[in-house]
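Replying to the earlier thread about multi-chain prediction with a worked example.

Input:
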Amino acid sequence: EDQVTQSPEALRLQEGESSSLNCSYTVSGLRGLFWYRQDPGKGPEFLFTLYSAGEEKEKERLKATLTKKESFLHITAPKPEDSATYLCAVQDYQFYFGTGTSLTVIP
Amino acid sequence: EPEVTQTPSHQVTQMGQEVILRCVPISNHLYFYWYRQILGQKVEFLVSFYNNEISEKSEIFDDQFSVERPDGSNFTLKIRSTKLEDSAMYFCASSMDRVDTGELFFGEGSRLTVL
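Result:
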């Protein structure tokens, strides 16, 4: 059973068109939920850590939120440089990554 | 800005050969990790290392794998006898704190191709 499921698998947005990425998880003893950005051929780059339901974190055009079973990464007025794969990861006793959402922002 | 560096960036090897992947974590970090990503698949945890010993490992990290911190700066992953299914991108990561309290910094990866 997958511990982390991300949707959609791929998302194409026009520049300025806001949207949200979803990460749902099944681990029972969540110690942390993490969002990363991964550019092609590169290692994941840390964005946010969320620890408890109701928590929110913001960074530039990105805002991450957490509920008891899922997290959303909201992208407001995206730019082409936001194009990347966004990975969600959760930790109970181990660290589990999702397969990611590939975001393309078209100028 | 401090970064995690990995060498080689790409290694091609024959099945059954030994491979060593090298990493230089960020200098004041205390926790070190190896992850792998098979093409088109998830990033998978292999092993974590703290205070000169393995702290956690996954089912993937079997007897063919070993890690070492031979000196104060390098952190290595050895695959003793490579198999075709070991072909993947291997990422080293480090953190100041345990991963549940802090962020992981990843290197750019070493691509391993086993023929």
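The interface with chain B takes residues 31-32, 34, 36, 41-46, 49, 87, 89, 91, 93-100 of chain A (CB under 8 Å).

Feel free to reuse this layout for your own posts.
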